[in-house]
Structure formats: structure tokens, C-alpha cells
Amino acid sequence: METKEIMDAISIKRSLTRITHEIIERNKGVENIILVGIKTRGAVLAGYLADSIARVEHVDVPCYALDVSHWRDDREEAYPIPELEMPVKNKKVILVDDVLFKGRTVRAAMDAIMHYGRAKEIQLAVLVDRGHRELPIRADYIGKNIPSSLQEQIRVKVNDIDGCDGVYISK
């Protein structure tokens, strides 16, 4: 299986820095914003964004990791609802994931957020948008668009889990 690196650690950092500034600009600051990262790598990326926002705005934005297993529509097994204190009521939630593909994980995450309360708004930030949507979901902030075939796999690696940062495509 041929694997090609399409984003290295520096490219990822640049993309996250750009997304940080786009979030701040679009929301006219970071008041009433919380970051919610979809486990596993989306949660790590949300942490990176929280650190980047803190460097720029000198404000700590709350950051949460969300397990969407209970809300998935492609699993037969019943998963329990995670016990999590996540104050989303009247907040602007920036939902963060590593790869946006068919849109089903994001749909599950939106259902989960609604379970915890009525957010004022939900915005979506992804490191990679690879297309092939099955649901009408689009990202507000995108690190990189990577057109891909259904036969290809895109893997995001993050230092906290994988020991390095990078995005790879395999056939």
C-alpha cells in the first residue's frame, strides 16, 4: 500500500494558526466560545486550537473531548451516554474533527451537543475535508481540502497520540 505525506507538522501548525485567526475574526473575539473536539484526534486538535487562541487573545477558551459512540447511526451495539459536564447552553460551540468525510460523525456530534443543551450556534473546524458527503454538512473552517477517491484512506497523526504530526493518504 503506497502512502504519501500530504501535510507535515509545519503545514498542520500553519493551518491551525490560520483557523485560529478565522475563528477569532468571524466571532469578533472569543467571548462565549467553547471548543469541543471529537475523540480521539479531533480532541487533540481542539486542544491545539485552544492553546493557539490563548496565545493570540490571552484568554483560555474551555475545551472538551466528546465521545460520539452513543449517537452513531452505524453501530448495532448500544453505547452508554458519556457522563460529561459540557456547558453548551447559549455558547458558540466550535466542533473540531480531524477529517470530514461523509458527515456522519459530525451529525452524531451535533446530536450529542444537543443532548447537553441548546447551543447558540455550532461551527465546524476540520483539519482535512476530503469530500464524499452523504449528509448536507459543511465545515466553516478547513485546514486543507484534499480531494480523494473512495478507495483512498486519509490518516491524521498527532504528536500526543502518534509521536508525530502529519497527514497521510494511502491507496
UniProtKB/TrEMBL annotation:
The residues covered by the Phosphoribosyltransferase domain are 4-147
CDD domains on file: PRTases_typeI
Broad EC category: transferase
Known EC number(s)? 2.4.2.9
**Sequence motif PRPP-binding, residues:** 93-105
Please provide the record's keywords in A-Z order.
Glycosyltransferase, RNA-binding, Transcription, Transcription regulation, Transcription termination, Transferase
State the Gene Ontology terms under molecular function.
Answer: RNA binding; uracil phosphoribosyltransferase activity
Any one of the GO BP annotations: DNA-templated transcription termination
Reaction(s) the record says it catalyses = UMP + diphosphate = 5-phospho-alpha-D-ribose 1-diphosphate + uracil
Self-association and partners: Homodimer and homohexamer; in equilibrium.
Entry's family note: Belongs to the purine/pyrimidine phosphoribosyltransferase family. PyrR subfamily.
Task: Summarize the protein's role.
Answer: Regulates transcriptional attenuation of the pyrimidine nucleotide (pyr) operon by binding in a uridine-dependent manner to specific sites on pyr mRNA. This disrupts an antiterminator hairpin in the RNA and favors formation of a downstream transcription terminator, leading to a reduced expression of downstream genes.
Matching NCBIfam families: PRK05205.1-4, PRK05205.1-5
Q: What is this protein called?
A: Bifunctional protein PyrR
**Organism in which the protein naturally occurs:** Amedibacterium intestinale
- In the UniProt record, the gene name given for this protein reads pyrR
